[in-house]
Amino acid sequence: MIIDVPEGKDPIGYVWGEMVPGIGVAASNFSLSVYSHSTLGLREFEAARLRIAQINGCLFCMDWRTERDGVKVEPEFADAATNWRTTDAFDERTRLAAEYAERYATDHHNLDEEFWHRMLARYSQAEVVELSMSIGSWLAFGRLNHVLGLDSVCVLPGHTGNR
After folding, report:
1. Residues whose CB is less than 8 angstroms from the CB of residue 116 and which lie 6 or more positions away in sequence, other chains included
2. pTM higher than 0.85
3. Structure-model confidence comparison of residues 34 and 163, the more confident one
4. SS3 of 84-113
5. Phi, psi for 54 (deg, rounded to 5)
6. CB neighbours of residue 84 within 10 Å
7. What is the pLDDT of residue 159?
8. Which residues on adjacent β-strands are paired with residue 140?
9. What is the rounded average pLDDT of the residues 20-29?
10. Reduced to 3 states, what is the DSSP secondary structure of residue 156?
11. Which of 80, 97, 79 is nearest to 138 (CA)?
12. What secondary structure letter does DSSP report for 20?
């Protein structure tokens, strides 16, 4: 970790809440709202989230599995997210979620008409906006935590035990 955290302080709470309270608290609320207000299916949500985690290299995010109503994706799901092009574990919406996440993070200038035609054939415009905001949150905050070395000590507030 490159940030000096005082002894006895929670690293995430300190960095996100105490060091930059005007920004960190708002960012934390946005990050948490992606989980608590999502209307996307769990598999689509997790395919995009895991693909961003893999691209960011965030240790915590790669290990995390979102839980909804006691349900999580299967253990092999992360491998399927990596291999979204060829896996038979994904339906078309889930595959598109992983593809969009990857392209959003690594090649956003080349999201062409062909891609959008496929995407809008399976997702509503509201779902595309929701997925875009979710991906943006994971890209920004997962990368922040990884770059600052917080990903080895990260625990999402209110989500303890879902890991």
Report:
1. none
2. yes
3. 34
4. CCCCCCCCHHHHHHHHHHHHHHHCHHHCCH
5. -65, -40
6. 21
7. 44
8. none
9. 92
10. coil
11. 97
12. S
The C-alpha R_g of the chain, in whole angstroms, comes to 16
- Alpha-carbon span 32 to 64, nearest angstrom: 14
Structure tokens at 43: 């598999």
- Name the burial class of residue 69, with classes exposed (0-12), middle (13-18) and buried (19+) by CB atoms within 10 angstroms of its CB: exposed
| C-alpha 65: how far from chain center | 10
Residue percentage of the chain with pLDDT more than 90: 65
> Tokens 């960095």 belong to which residue?
15
Give the angle 139-145-150 at the CA atoms, nearest 5°: 160
- Does residue 30 register a pLDDT over 60? yes
H-helix or E-strand spanning residue 142 = helix 125-147
| Partners of 68 in beta bridges | 71
**CB-CB contact of 34 with 135 (8 Å):** no
- For tokens 């959003």, the residue is 104
